[in-house]
Structure prediction request, 130 residues.
Amino acid sequence: MKIAIATDNYTRVAGHAGKARHWLLYLLHGHTPQQLLPAPTLIKLAPEQVMHHFKDDAPHPLDGVDLVVAGSAGEGFIRHMRERGADVLLTGEDDPATALTQILAGEALPDPRFDVTTTLCKLRDLFSRH
Prediction:
């Protein structure tokens, strides 16, 4: 399983997945909850690869991901990721390693916090190509 976590400079779970440039990619094939987490691959998206602006006309560094974890995401982002074969899980957990450990253990994550940018994205999505 491949899990990508949207982050703010690789340190905290990002509050807006569609605008996140820094991602932690975990390759977890055969991983068990008792094992230590493997080191993630650090992904830095170019400005044109940020999902908020990506035109869906080329392969993307997040292609092949099974699950995306973020603090918030707009409907357009969730739809685009589902079209690319990934589910989106939103959480209020700030620490990427803690969030991933809880996911792998089957534990519930804290609910996402309110994010005004998600509301603004919903308004933008009403008038966009999404």
